[in-house]
Design a protein that fits this description.
The complex is a heterotrimer of chains A (346), B (506) and C (345).
Chain A: H1 13-16, H2 31-57, H3 59-62, H4 65-90, H5 98-108, H6 112-115, H7 118-143, H8 148-167, E1 172-173, H9 177-181, H10 194-212, H11 214-224, H12 226-231, H13 236-262, E2 264-265, H14 273-284, H15 295-314, H16 319-345
Antiparallel strand pairs in A: 1-2
Helix pairs in contact in A: 2-15, 4-10, 4-11, 4-13, 4-14, 4-15, 5-7, 5-8, 5-13, 7-8, 7-13, 10-11, 11-13, 14-15, 14-16, 15-16
Chain B: E1 8-17, E2 20-30, E3 35-39, H1 46-53, E4 61-66, E5 69-70, H2 76-82, E6 84-87, H3 99-103, E7 110-111, E8 115-116, H4 118-131, H5 148-160, E9 166-170, H6 178-193, E10 197-201, H7 205-211, E11 214-219, E12 222-229, H8 235-243, E13 267-274, E14 278-285, E15 290-294, H9 301-308, E16 316-321, E17 324-325, H10 331-337, E18 339-342, H11 346-349, H12 357-362, E19 370-371, E20 374-375, H13 377-390, H14 407-421, E21 425-429, H15 437-452, E22 456-461, H16 464-470, E23 473-478, E24 481-487, H17 493-501
Parallel strand pairs in B: 3-10, 3-11, 6-9, 9-10, 15-22, 15-23, 18-21, 21-22
Antiparallel strand pairs in B: 1-2, 1-4, 4-5, 7-8, 11-12, 13-14, 13-16, 16-17, 19-20, 23-24
Helix pairs in contact in B: 13-14
Chain C: H1 2-24, E1 51-56, H2 63-78, E2 82-86, H3 93-105, E3 110-113, H4 122-130, E4 135-138, E5 150-153, H5 156-170, E6 177-183, H6 189-202, E7 208-215, H7 220-233, E8 239-242, H8 245-258, E9 264-269, H9 272-280, E10 285-290, H10 295-307, E11 323-325, E12 330-332, H11 336-339
Parallel strand pairs in C: 1-2, 1-3, 3-4, 4-5, 5-11, 6-7, 6-8, 8-9, 9-10
Antiparallel strand pairs in C: 10-12
Helix pairs in contact in C: 2-10, 3-4, 5-6, 7-8
Classes of the chains: A mainly alpha (346), B alpha/beta (506), C alpha/beta (345).
Chain lengths: 346, 506, 345
């Protein structure tokens, strides 16, 4: 019997012979996809309720384009970080160092020496520092056998330390005009701030990669069952390396965005981003244990948090109330999720 | 029958979960001191029923009578206080605690209510273990260090550390070797002699004949037969009750012509060994041939498969596929050469439980459907569906969550993965574990058909009849060494058992 | 294969040059050296008996705290007879207690302590005093007066008070004037004091009303975010008080982004960037209320005086006072040149 080479483009012999006539594409309920959609819908519902509350309590300040621009802009930096975090969590990992990587990249990219190289120097440095830090995380986890929690915790500490060492605790003001200009209204494209455009682009790219590419499939497979993925022929270690690299890349991009937004670099940048990003991904519906991730959900999660902060600030409520509400939302969202997923179980 | 009422009567028990009616009027009656067997396919409601009995689930309807009086089993503690102990298939032991600590977990022997009397606990634990025929288990050792069989003994000792009238055992023999099963039977017989009733759940009919008194059969959440005599009811009747159909021929016929010895082997294993696991092994696999590896747990059979597949790195030797040597210890090299593995622990080692059938099938062939990293999902789905149809995977829905499939269909999803990959050598490790009786025959037929179509299959199974019925050639393993190679038709079960246990104390 | 290796080589070269570039980019040395912070004459410049001063402060992760360290060091360098034993700053209370104990064991002559947490370090202050080492407590006050010989620090309530008076005077005669407050970290006592002082001052000006308040957390990022929200919430107002010039960098950025300029802004603490902006007079920032980091230099002066058993020149007392509260001066365009050397970055 002749067997086609396994790498050949056609199927095995048993598949080549005519099987049952392929029926027309079934349009039945797609169990898995549908459930993710429902979850996203419920977050959209939360968002709709928030918009109603905002519009009711502060009709003048809440419902105008300026506020929409504001909410989207305030979401953009943490949003980009959350997209990277979503990939890592989907693969069953965690990246506690995102805030620290943003801080390190933003201060490294705004030293006096870097600023001499202008726009390109700042952008290049922010991205490369982010990627390099992600590379270290990835190597430690994928090839050093370290637990992600520990490896990225170590990165959190050392990146923050390095950021402090570079700045000496000082605020580094950006003087490169082309960078500063990107954060001003004159740079808006059809009323959309450039930062929001970057956020949108990263979201779309993240969604496509997670849902439409082999990279995304492998990410989900590794998160769902790393041993099964390995025995199915996936290079699990290389995949993990790339994932932390990706998270670092997102942090580098976010750092550049933060530089544009705040016109400065400071070692305190990105404070507690790790928690905000994890929280947004989780309420969005990404499983903390891995194996399921949704970029749309994560982005909605970020928008929900930013909108709450916005409404509270517009109503002049203080930070204590804001924090309480944030905690309550996380608990409520996860409880709702658990109910829906238990329903799906049997 | 004595006028004495039955120890336990459950009647008309119903239990629904969202979307599923798990129990739809179940009746069960257990006499004092009897070994009562509970049979049913996966999904028939056995697990739900024993959880109701253990107090872990609350029934929606029906009555439970215990020692002649109605009771409510509102929590696991209530059930335990009444004298009902349950030993689950997945043992619920704390690995870091010692044997004695596990046995007395939750009802520690204490002085003044809080000082744990470790020494006394260990002495009592030893007594319990001795009663179970295992005095050699050290009560001070952490449970995590013990073998699966010994852990099960500890679990039983824990059950016996309470005053019990009834012990429920959920597939206690699943993880055991024949000699350990013999000991299990001794324990069960002893319990019955002491007047303790046992509800015994197993897929293996021969075990039920050996130790059972009466049999209750469940199907689709209902009781379809009560109190059948375990020894005398014909197998085909029981299978028919469980499946609702007759199962005449379990194993498919071998091809009349057979595989010519002169055919070029597709897989050649030469001097393959792993220190501490198995001695150098040689074997050849020709296209169309099924070769079985028979041996006890710990004889190195799974280790051999995983080493051939590259999941473990060999100490010596090499694996050649169609004349080309594989890079040792590389799963990716093995897969690229056309080897596929259906591992023993399907859920832990093969399935992506959060994913659909399509994605489980396509995971090893993704690059075929991808251009520059982009997956053509239509082509992927179509190809996966062709493969699953080829194996009659049910339900015929490529988007179904693989988690919701039965054991047999999950196994088919794993096989479809390798078919789609175009593999030429299939390594099957316990292919029917967790697959119920009715579905097994179908799986055997699939495996034989794949071989007939030109695949070479290497099969590992702890069930000797399965190896003998399915394989063309059999290699018998003992303590990491191949002790015998023969045509399957020249062997019988006794001969194989003699070979695998030759020289062992039992 | 050659394809891959060439790609590898290219990547390698790029990585190496990127690495070299990045290493060069950590430098923060400005082209010309900035002048040293303080040039005023010390109270008593004549060298006296040798004194060893132990200095323990929190981690300098913030511009103002960094300026504290710089001021203490440069002041000590001015005196040939003073040796400064400075510890690694720490925000961990336990670690800081350990550091102070080490200094006690080293038998320094005087201690200057800026505690990460005043209450938590009281015990170790008492210990030092009992060991006969006078303690100069800097800024964050110990729970017991027995734990220090002298306290020197800023006046948070006074900051708010002076900021409120300045704004009130500026808006005098304007009916229905609206004021907005951008506070610092809300769970700090000092933020409460600053807000209280501000509110008390505004009571003197019935035409002025505080219409909104949000708390940032002393970082540029939070300053930008919270200010952007305030600007969205209040479409028009007349004055803004921002508690901290570091977060003020972000606040100014948000104001610039919103294109607003109808109000005046008053900062807090006295960063150099704020003073530069006040001097340039081209933004809404018109004043900043000092919380001077020069207090660290004063603390060194006091410690030296304690070590040499002297009083303070210019006062008729034999001993130095037990408590010195510094004045929170309002820096405006008119007097900025005088304060510019004390500005920190």
């Amino acid at each position: 019997m002749t067997q086609p080479a396994p790498s050949a483009q056609h199927h095995g012999p048993d598949l080549a012979k005519p099987a049952a006539p392929p029926p027309r594409q079934e349009r039945g309920p797609r169990a898995l996809g549908l459930r993710a959609d429902v979850r996203n819908l419920s977050l959209l519902g939360v968002l709709a309720v928030l918009v109603a509350v905002g519009g009711f309590t502060e009709p003048d300040a809440f419902l105008d384009t300026g506020n929409l621009q504001l909410i989207l802009t305030q979401s953009s930096v943490i949003g980009v970080v959350t997209v990277g975090m979503t990939f890592v969590i989907t693969s069953g990992g965690i990246d506690l160092s995102v805030g620290a990587m943003v801080a390190l990249a933003s201060v490294w990219a705004t030293t006096l020496a870097t600023q001499e190289y202008g726009f390109a120097g700042i952008l290049f440095t922010a991205v490369v520092v982010g990627v390099a830090a992600g590379l270290v995380n990835g190597l430690l986890i994928a090839y050093g056998g370290m637990v992600p929690f520990i490896a990225t915790l170590a990165m959190l500490a050392s990146a923050r330390g390095l950021a402090l060492q570079i700045t000496d605790g000082k605020t580094q003001i950006v003087t490169v005009q082309s960078v500063l200009d990107l954060g001003l209204p004159d740079a808006y494209v059809l009323g959309i701030p450039p930062l929001v455009l970057v956020f949108a682009a990263v979201t779309v790219a993240g969604w496509l990669i997670l849902n439409r590419t082999t990279f995304g499939r492998r990410t989900v497979a590794v998160g769902g069952n790393a041993e099964a993925a390995r025995l199915a022929g996936i290079d699990v270690r290389r995949q993990r390396l790339y994932l932390y690299l990706l998270s670092g890349l997102c942090c580098g991009i976010a750092a550049f965005m933060l530089i544009i937004l705040s016109g400065s670099g400071q070692n305190t940048n990105g404070n507690l981003y790790e928690l905000d990003a994890i929280a947004a991904a989780i309420i969005g519906g990404t499983l903390l244990s891995g194996g399921r991730g949704t970029i749309v959900g994560s982005v909605l999660g970020v928008l929900v948090f930013t909108t709450i902060t916005n409404i509270f600030a517009l109503n002049n409520l203080q930070s204590d109330v804001q924090q309480i509400a944030k905690g309550a939302i996380i608990v409520a969202a996860v409880l709702v999720q658990r109910r829906t997923s238990r329903h799906g179980e049997t | 029958m004595a006028p004495e009422p039955p120890l336990l009567t459950m009647s008309g028990i119903t239990k629904s979960f969202p979307g599923v009616r798990a129990l739809d009027g179940v009746d069960l009656e257990v006499q004092a001191g009897e070994v009562h067997c509970l049979l049913g396919q996966n999904g028939a409601g056995k697990s739900t029923l024993i959880k109701v009995l253990a107090g872990a689930h609350q029934p929606d309807g029906g009555t439970i009578t215990w020692h002649g009086a109605p009771v409510q089993l509102s929590s696991p503690i209530t059930a335990m206080r009444l004298g009902i102990a349950t030993i689950y298939q997945e043992l619920d032991l704390v690995e870091n605690l010692s044997v004695a600590e596990n046995i007395f977990l939750g009802h520690e022997l204490t002085t003044a209510g809080f000082v744990v009397r470790t020494r006394v606990a260990e002495i009592e634990a030893s007594a319990l273990l001795a009663r179970l025929g295992h005095p050699e288990i050290d009560p001070g050792r952490p449970v995590g260090d013990l073998s699966a069989a010994h852990q099960q003994i500890v679990s039983m000792a824990r059950a016996l550390s309470h005053e019990v009238d009834l012990i429920v055992m959920d597939e206690p023999s699943a993880a055991l070797d024949p000699d350990e099963v013999a000991n299990l039977f001794r324990i069960v017989d002893g319990l019955a002699a002491d007047g303790v009733s046992v509800i015994y759940i197993s897929h293996r009919l021969e075990e039920i004949r050996r130790i059972g008194d009466r049999v209750t059969v469940l199907k689709d959440g209902r009781t379809v037969a009560v109190g059948l005599p375990a020894e005398s009811t014909p197998t085909r009747d029981i299978v028919a009750l469980m499946t609702g159909r007759d199962v005449e021929h379990v194993f498919p016929p071998r091809p009349a012509s057979g595989v010519p010895d002169t055919a070029e082997p597709v897989l050649t294993v030469e001097g393959l060994s792993r220190k501490g696991e198995f001695e150098p092994v040689d074997l050849e696999l020709r296209p169309g041939e099924i070769v079985g590896l028979a041996g006890l747990v710990g004889s190195g059979r799974s280790e051999i498969l995983e080493t051939v597949f590259g999941a473990r790195k060999p100490t010596t030797g090499r694996v050649t596929v169609a004349g080309r040597a594989l890079r040792p210890g590389s799963v990716r090299a093995a897969i690229a050469a056309g080897i596929g593995l259906a591992p023993e622990e399907r859920k832990a080692q093969a399935l992506l439980l959060t994913e659909s059938v399509t994605r489980n099938v396509s995971v090893s062939s993704l690059s075929r459907f991808a251009r520059a990293g982009w997956v053509d999902r239509r082509a992927e789905r179509k190809a996966a569906r062709t493969a699953t149809r080829e194996l009659s995977l049910r339900p015929d829905n490529p988007d179904a969550a693989v988690r919701t499939l039965s054991g047999g269909n999950q196994q088919k999803a794993v096989l479809a993965r390798w078919l789609l990959r175009g593999c030429r050598v299939l390594l099957l490790d316990e292919p029917t574990r967790g697959v119920d009786v009715g579905a097994r025959a179908e799986l055997y037929a699939v495996i034989r058909r794949l071989a007939d179509e030109g695949l070479a299959v290497l099969l590992v199974s702890s069930e000797v009849p399965e190896v003998l019925g399915l394989a063309d050639r059999v290699l018998v393993l003992r303590e990491g060494r191949v002790v015998h190679t023969a045509d399957a038709r020249e062997l019988d079960e006794h001969r194989v058992l003699d070979l695998v246990m030759e020289g062992s104390p039992t | 294969m050659p394809e891959t290796s060439r790609r590898g080589l290219l990547f390698g070269t790029a990585a190496v040059s990127a690495g070299a570039f990045l290493t060069a980019c950590t430098s923060n040395e400005p082209k010309e050296k900035a002048t040293a912070a303080n040039n005023q004459p010390a109270a008593d410049d004549k060298p006296g008996t040798p004194v060893t001063i132990g200095f323990a402060g929190p981690q300098a992760d913030h511009g103002w705290l960094n300026a504290i360290n710089v001021n203490a060091k440069s002041r000590a360098e001015k005196y040939s007879e003073v040796t400064l034993e400075i510890t690694e700053g720490s925000n961990d209370t336990a670690a800081q207690i350990g550091q102070v104990k080490t200094l006690i064991n080293k038998k320094v002559d005087v201690l200057v302590v800026l505690p990460a947490d005043g209450k938590a370090l009281t015990q170790v202050g008492l210990e030092a005093m009992k060991a006969g080492i006078p303690v100069v407590n800097l800024d964050r006050v110990f729970a017991s007066p027995q734990a220090y010989r002298c306290w020197v620090g800023g006046d948070n309530y006074g900051m708010g008070l002076n900021a409120g008076h300045y704004i009130g005077e500026q808006l005098k005669g304007k009916a229905g004037a609206k004021v907005v407050e951008l506070a610092g970290i809300d769970n700090l006592e000092l933020t409460k004091q600053r807000s209280q002082g501000f509110a008390d001052a505004l009571k003197n000006y019935p035409n002025v009303k505080l219409v909104a308040r949000q708390a940032a957390d002393f970082t540029v990022e939070s300053g930008q975010a919270k200010m952007a929200q305030l600007l969205q919430a209040q479409k028009q107002f007349d004055a803004l008080w921002n508690h901290d010039d570091d977060q003020g960098v972000g606040a100014l950025r948000a104001i610039q982004q919103a294109g607003r300029d109808e109000f005046i802004m008053v900062g807090g603490a006295g960063a150099k960037s704020a003073m530069d902006a006040i001097k340039a007079d081209n933004s809404v920032l018109k004043a900043t209320v000092l919380y001077p980091p020069t207090m660290a230099a004063s603390a060194i002066d006091l410690a030296r005086a304690l070590g040499q058993n002297k009083g303070i020149a210019g006062l008729s007392e034999m001993e130095i006072p037990t408590s010195l509260t510094l004045y929170s001066a309002v820096v405006t365009k008119d007097n900025v040149d005088q304060y510019l050397p004390t500005g920190f970055s």
